[in-house]
From TrEMBL:
Residues 97-261, 290-433 form the Sodium/calcium exchanger membrane region domain. This is Vacuolar calcium ion transporter. It comes from Hirsutella minnesotensis 3608. Pfam families: Na_Ca_ex. Residues 1-28 are annotated as: Disordered. It is found in: Endomembrane system; Vacuole membrane. InterPro entries: CaH_exchang, CAX-like, NaCa_Exmemb, NCX_ion-bd_dom_sf.
Length: 449
């Protein structure tokens, strides 16, 4: 005898849980004595008019249903109230600080909706294609913001945001999962317990992260040696090396996707946690509707990103903070807020394999997929985007990967390890915050590709 598992809260968990049930014919039976206003505005599964014989009424009702489901998909969506104000602020030239702040908060719910729409489409495509879609669009906000910044010549911001996204996943998110999950499941005093996850997956992914770290250290080391010898070709050599390395990393990332989604998918679904999380969940909208939401939200993200990136230079001058801090700490918050909450929630429910797949999986997507892809995009549009990061950024990344690897290699975690990861993230954040705005500026950002 088996029972359905309780579905954990996540990015697709509705804000309003109605009490609808399924009848013998599979159709949704609506709860009794619910006022029309509740059903129209807050019922997640039904909207009056969807079954109308009139095409116009049915179309309007379904459009409202898709809108309602999207708005109720995540708690952070209340920040959508900021969206029109942010667009107006950017279009009419408000104070740069206001433009940055408003569009910063506007992108957070848009990122959550992107994730929700992607998940809805993925449910229709099956496990393998759905996983590939999630891997492709999982960091869509970071990609859009980075392409806008790259086009604007903000290479330092692009590099810092890529590094910041990796560090926020490896240290902040994984640290919060270990710390809060460890406190919640610490066991009896004197007989403490640890949370467990797949050690094989952790070792594989950490090996890939170590390789990614090497792909940044090698260009930095080569540049330093050539600079010490007074070579005039150091910029060109570092750029050529970065582009070749980017191609290799992208090929390796494709192999990793095949390893994860096809040949060794059993390793990445330890104890069936992913199945248990979604086996009783049905799509809330059709694939075409989800695709329309995806396209519309992508356009809005691009508009907000344009205004956000355009205000960075003025923010740096007026607030006297470095672009590295904006890219490393602030921008990753925009794209990762919703999935960060998801990882912590599933860690509290002792589903550590799911939490690790969000934290480390997203880091690999950025380090081996998104960052090399941006190097290629920079090559195409004649922007010198390279894997030669500033020395301090490279060292911070390498140390973070080293600490994270030692922390997860045994397949167990506790709140002390979480506190260690969080401490390192705070130290790095403070270091970049106190650094003067021009101290980390590289001459390479001015060299033509």
């Amino acid at each position: 005898m088996s029972t359905k598992p309780n579905r954990g809260a996540g990015e697709c968990t509705p804000l309003i849980h109605d009490e609808s049930s399924s009848g013998d014919d599979g159709r949704v039976v609506q709860p009794q004595q619910r006022p029309f206003a509740y059903t129209f505005f807050l019922n997640y599964n039904h909207t009056p008019g969807k079954d109308s014989n009139r095409l116009a009424v049915r179309s309007l009702a379904y459009t409202w249903h898709v809108t309602k489901v999207t708005l109720l998909s995540n708690y952070v969506n209340f920040l959508l109230l900021v969206l029109p104000i942010g667009i107006i602020a950017g279009a009419t030239g408000w104070n740069p600080t206001a433009v940055f702040a408003l569009n910063f908060f506007a992108i957070i719910p848009l990122a959550a909706i992107l994730s929700f729409a992607t998940e809805q489409i993925a449910m229709k495509l099956g496990e393998s294609m759905g996983g590939l879609l999630n891997a492709t669009f999982g960091n869509a906000v970071e990609l859009i913001v980075s392409i806008v910044a790259l086009k604007d010549g903000q290479i330092e911001v692009v590099q810092s945001s890529m590094l910041g996204s990796i560090l926020s996943n490896l240290l902040l998110v994984m640290g919060m999962c270990f710390f809060l999950g460890g406190l919640c499941h610490r066991g009896q005093t004197g007989s403490g317990t640890e949370q467990e996850f797949s050690a094989a997956v952790a070792q594989t992914t950490c090996s890939l992260m170590t390789l990614s770290s090497a792909s940044l250290v090698i260009p930095a080391a080569l540049y330093a040696v050539m600079n010490q010898n007074g070579s005039d070709d150091k910029f060109r050599v570092a750029l050529v090396l970065s582009r070749v390395t980017a191609i290799i990393l992208l090929i390796l990332y494709i192999l990793y996707l095949g390893f994860q989604l096809r040949t060794h998918s059993n390793l990445f679904d330890a104890e069936g946690q992913n199945i248990a999380e979604h086996e009783d969940e049905q799509p809330k909208m059709g694939a075409l509707s989800a695709a329309a939401v995806l396209i519309a939200v992508t356009v809005l993200v691009a508009i907000c990103a344009e205004y956000l990136v355009g205000s960075i230079d003025d923010i740096v001058e007026s607030a006297n903070i470095s672009k590295a801090f904006i890219g490393l700490i602030l921008i990753p918050i925009v794209g990762n807020a919703a999935e960060h909450v998801t990882a912590v929630v599933v860690a509290l429910r002792n589903k550590m394999d799911l939490a690790m797949s969000v934290a480390i999986g997203s880091s690999i997507q950025i380090a081996m997929g998104l960052t090399p892809f941006l190097v290629i995009v920079g090559w195409i549009i004649n922007r010198p985007m390279s894997l030669h990061f500033e020395t301090f950024e490279t060292v911070a990344f390498a140390v973070s990967v080293l600490v994270a690897t030692y922390t997860v290699q045994d397949g167990k975690s506790n709140y002390l390890e979480g506190a260690m990861l969080l401490s390192l993230y705070i130290i790095i954040a403070v270091a970049f915050y106190v650094t003067p705005s021009d101290a980390l500026r590289k001459a390479t950002s001015l060299i033509p590709g």
